[in-house]
């Protein structure tokens, strides 16, 4: 049971977040990032209270290799959006942060101007270990930011492993940042990231116009050969200079065009519903896996059965069936 003082404190926290207080939002996110069982229980209550206040934002995923200019671009975009009356939250999914101990947004010098603005909220990557953990926390943080009245949520990720898929699975529109050189294109195409992109931005266009033109042409032809997820939208390729603030307004115009077009077909709503169900299934699967591993009978017999399978004495199917059968027994 939650003690009364804690419940009262949480009620005040909920009210403060809904009243758009950034410090309360930061505190609420810290609570949802905690792995302590009592914190988890409080966090779930908080999330439930916030749920009716979520959904009123455009969720933008931004991905790109380190050094491509993500934080420069997000800062430029954020300042542009604030000027036009928006409130902007920036979150991150960075599975490498748990290894390196740092995070892509952890460095205080990044997005210096944006972080000083009342209308912005910047949150470093949670250090929850596995990608699944980091992504789940970021999903929950995103909902909290919406409850706190942020109408543009940017989720940043680096080009590492499955993090792009995770971010594309929690945002309305997924943006890929590229450098104006062909090698960068090939990398992204090879990794299957281009398929996820609804908008491709070639950043640092100020350095070499010819190279930028070539990169845009290559990317357009690559995109035209891919079957894209939405039948309503052909991903555009844009030239941007984040440092010279060129192409930022045009970029946002594309986001608005995307939003309008997709909304005409109810496609964003459908996408979001599918994302929440997929999230539930991911949680069920990781929960089942954890429960299986923790089951006393599984722990007792797993090593011996695996050895027996390895020695060719037991079939994999039989061993799996037996171990899975333990799950239906109460422990
Ligand atoms: P991130 O690792 O993707 O977040 O990249 P950063 O935003 O930290 O940028 C990496 C470097 O590229 C920095 O030195 C930036 O100043 C520089 N940079 C970013 N955008 C541009 C741009 O549009 N033009 C030029 N010339 N440099 C840029």
Question: What characteristics describe this protein?
Answer:
alpha/beta, binds guanosine-5'-diphosphate, 331 residues, Single alpha-helices involved in coiled-coils or other helix-helix interfaces, 2 domains
What's this entry about, in short?
The chain is of the alpha/beta class. 56% of the residues lie in helices and 11% in strands. A seven-stranded parallel β-sheet has the order 3-2-4-1-5-6-7, sandwiched between helices.
Question: How does this structure look, described?
Answer:
This protein has 331 residues and is α/β, with parallel strands linked by helices. The chain has 2 domains: 1-53, Single alpha-helices involved in coiled-coils or other helix-helix interfaces, CATH 1.20.5.170; 55-265, Rossmann fold. The chain is 56% helix and 11% strand. It is built from 14 helices and 7 strands. The chain has helices at residues 4-18, 22-33, 37-50, 70-83, 97-100, 112-115, 131-147, 163-168, 182-190, 209-225, 248-264, 267-294, 296-310, 316-327, and strands at residues 58-64, 88-93, 120-122, 152-158, 173-178, 199-202, 237-239. Helix 1 (4-18) packs across helix 3 (37-50), helix 2 packs across helix 3 and helix 13 (296-310) packs antiparallel against helix 14 (316-327). It is globular. The structure holds guanosine-5'-diphosphate (GDP). Guanosine-5'-diphosphate binds next to helix 4.
């Amino acid at each position: 049971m939650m003690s009364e003082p804690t419940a009262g404190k949480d009620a005040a926290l909920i009210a403060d977040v809904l009243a758009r207080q950034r410090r309360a939002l930061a505190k609420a996110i810290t609570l949802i990032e905690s792995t302590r069982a009592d914190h988890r229980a409080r966090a779930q209550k908080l999330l439930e209270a916030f749920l009716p206040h979520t959904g009123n934002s455009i969720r933008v995923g931004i991905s790109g290799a380190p050094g491509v200019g993500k934080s420069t671009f997000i800062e430029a975009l954020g300042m542009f959006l604030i000027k036009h009356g928006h409130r902007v939250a920036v979150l991150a999914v960075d599975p490498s942060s748990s290894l390196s101990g740092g995070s892509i947004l952890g460095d205080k010098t990044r997005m210096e101007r944006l972080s000083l603005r009342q209308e912005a909220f910047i949150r470093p990557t949670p250090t929850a270990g596995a990608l699944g953990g980091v992504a789940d926390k970021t999903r929950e943080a995103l909902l909290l930011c919406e409850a706190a009245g942020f109408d543009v949520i940017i989720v940043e990720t680096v080009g590492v492993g499955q993090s792009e898929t995770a971010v594309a699975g929690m945002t309305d529109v997924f943006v890929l940042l590229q450098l104006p050189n062909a090698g960068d294109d090939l990398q992204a195409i090879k990794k299957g990231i281009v398929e996820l992109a609804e908008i491709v931005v070639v950043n640092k266009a100020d350095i070499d116009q010819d190279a930028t033109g070539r990169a845009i042409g290559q990317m357009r032809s690559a995109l035209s050969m891919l079957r894209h997820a939405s039948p309503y939208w052909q991903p555009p390729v844009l030239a941007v200079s984040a440092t010279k603030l060129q192409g930022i307004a045009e970029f946002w115009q594309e986001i608005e065009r995307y939003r309008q077009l997709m909304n005409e077909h109810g496609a964003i709503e459908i996408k979001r519903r599918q994302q929440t169900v997929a999230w539930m299934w991911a949680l069920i699967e990781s929960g089942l896996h954890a429960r299986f591993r923790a089951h006393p009978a599984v722990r007792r017999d797993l090593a011996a059965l695996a050895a027996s399978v390895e020695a060719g004495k037991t079939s994999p199917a039989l061993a799996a069936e037996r171990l899975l059968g333990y799950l239906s027994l109460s422990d």
